[in-house]
Each structure stands twice: as structure tokens, then as C-alpha cells.
What we know:
Elements (H helix, E strand, L loop, with lengths): L5 E6 L2 E6 L10 H16 L5 E6 L4 E3 L7 E2 L2 E2 L16 H14 L4 E5 L2 E3 L1 H7 L3 E5 L3 E3 L2 H4 L6 H10 L1 H10 L3 E2 H6 L5 E3 L4 H13 L3 H13 L4 H15 L3 H11 L12
Parallel strand pairs: 2-3, 3-7, 4-8, 7-9, 8-10, 9-12
Antiparallel strand pairs: 1-2, 5-6, 10-11
Helix pairs in contact: 1-2, 2-10, 3-5, 5-6
The site of ligand LTTK3YTO has 26 residues, from helix 2, strand 8, helix 4 and helix 10.
EC number: 4.1.3.36
InterPro entries: ClpP/crotonase-like_dom_sf, DHNA-CoA_synthase_MenB, Enoyl-CoA_hyd/isom_CS, Enoyl-CoA_hydra/iso, Enoyl-CoA_hydra_C
Protein name: 1,4-dihydroxy-2-naphthoyl-CoA synthase
Amino acid sequence: MEFQDIIYEKYDGRAKIIINRVQKLNAFSNLTLQEMIKALTDAWVDKNVGVIIITGAGDRAFSVGGDQSIRAKGGYESEETDSLDFPLDNLPLPNNHALVLQLIRTIPKPVIASVNGYAIGGGHVLHVVCDMSIAASTAKFGQAGPRVGSFDAGYGSAYLARVVGEKKAREIWYLCEQYSAEDALQMGLVNRVVPPDKLNEVVEEICASLLEKSPTALAALKASFNAETESIWGIHNMAGIALNLYYDTEEALEGKNAFMEKRKPDFAKYRK
Ligand SMILES: CC(C)(COP(=O)(O)OP(=O)(O)OC[C@H]1O[C@@H](n2cnc3c(N)ncnc32)[C@H](O)[C@@H]1OP(=O)(O)O)[C@@H](O)C(=O)NCCC(=O)NCCSC(=O)c1cc(O)c2ccccc2c1O
């Protein structure tokens, strides 16, 4: 399979998706997400694959979310994706992001986030919905939405609250601060923190352990863990509609423009 924005590898029972936009700290575009959907679907149906790893290229970032440089009034611009032969190429970015999240949750195989640097915004949500997150000690975690004129009022907030608790989830979203890997471990946001040069090795060991286990037992457990939070998919879809409408507003644009112009946003006039 040929991809432009991701590297997709399969070896020894593993499928590995590497988000490969190093120059943008692995921020994703529509194409990146569509390629991830294609790779995740392939990993789902391939009987040789028992575990999936998601990581970022380079040593600075896992992913920093939506690519702000291609965001305009009305949402994210699409690239030409004909070469991908993809039936969903007209979907807006929040819909593609939602499909990636729901695929990660639905695939009846463990999905491991190997967090090698910044996991920010929609990139943070990607690791939150993975079955396990293993972090380099240099990784940084956080949401950015209210700072840059965006929000994930579905899995990114409601499911995050299940993981770290209501108060912490609200703090993470409202204040848009960054958290260290040790902070993340303490709040139950990641499973393990390891030195950066050991990240790959530890993730490989965890994959080896998972591959020794009964795949049907793992699949049933994953479905069971998902069951209680499955209703969040409904609110996630509603939130996607709200986000697409919000991206059409001057308020949302002020957040994006301020980030790109490296200045503080001025949201004062939008208070209600
Ligand atoms: C990630 C940072 C905290 C890093 O800060 P640092 O100071 O280390 O580095 P710089 O700020 O100088 O960044 C280096 C370089 O990278 C560019 N860059 C960083 N982030 C992005 C980005 N998201 N898109 C494009 N480019 C990015 C930056 O401009 C610099 O370029 P230079 O050319 O100047 O060198 C910090 O960069 C940061 O806070 N980044 C913003 C993160 C962000 O806003 N992410 C998007 C949030 S919204 C989102 O992800 C999102 C997507 C969805 O699809 C959703 C779907 C449904 C619901 C919600 C969604 C959602 O919220």
C-alpha cells in the first residue's frame, strides 16, 4: 500500500502506522486521516495482524492535531485525494477524524499509542482513545481547542473525563496547558513512561506479550471495555456537526489566525 502522509508497516503480527508530517509536528490533514482509515481497515481485516501501533515520525511529536495552516473559514481545506481511490474524500476533517477514532475503538484488536513527543489537540484525542498509551519521558500532553478556536465535544472530552476524571478533564480543556509524561502517568492518561531511547523496545515487548494472548479473549474484553462509553459516539457525531458550523464563525477563525500569527487571541467580543 502506497501512502503519502503515513508510513504503514506490517511485521511479526504487528501493523504500525507512523504519522509522517515531521515538518508540521505530525499535524494531520484530510489526506493523513483518510490514509489512516485505509491502513486501520487493512489491519482490521488482515488475519496476520494481532496488534496495531500508532506513533509519529521523528522525535518531537506524536501528533499536534489538525493542520492549522490549511484551516480557513468553514474548516480545513482538502487536498486532491483521487490517487487514494477513497470513497469518502469529500468528508470534512472532523468527520475523517471521527472515523479514525471510531475505527481505533471498534477494531477487535489492541491499538497501542507509542507517544514519542507532543500529543496535542486532535493528536491528543488520538492517543486517548487507544487501548494503551506508552509515553517517552519527553512527551507532552494537552488540548488546544479553546485557545485556537476548536473543540472536540465527543470522545475528546466525554471519554477523556472517564479516563482522568471530571475535574481534571475540564482543567485540561479549559486551561489548554501542557502536561509532562509523569503528570500523564499520575492521572492515568498513559500506562507507562520510558526513556525516549527505550520507547520502541518497550512497545515491542508489550506487543509480543499481547500476541501471546488469546485474540478472541482480547477482542471480547475490548468490546466489553467499550460498551459503557459507546453512547459517546452519538454525542461525538453531534459535536462534529457543531464543530463544522463553529469553523464558519469569526470567533473560531480568530483562534486559528492568532496561532498562525504567533499572537494571543482576542475572544472578548464573543462573550455571551
Ligand atoms: C504543539 C505546540 C505546543 C508546540 O509548541 P512549540 O513552541 O514547541 O513549537 P511551535 O509552536 O514553534 O511549532 C513548531 C512549528 O510547527 C507548527 N505547528 C504546530 N502545531 C501545528 C498545527 N496544529 N498545524 C500546523 N502547524 C503547526 C508551528 O506553526 C511551527 O511552525 P513554524 O513554521 O513557525 O516553525 C504548539 O505548536 C501548538 O500549540 N500548536 C497548536 C496545536 C493545535 O492548535 N492543534 C489543533 C487543535 S484543533 C484539532 O486538532 C482538532 C482536529 C480535529 O480533527 C477535530 C475533530 C473533531 C473535533 C475536534 C477536533 C480538533 O480539536
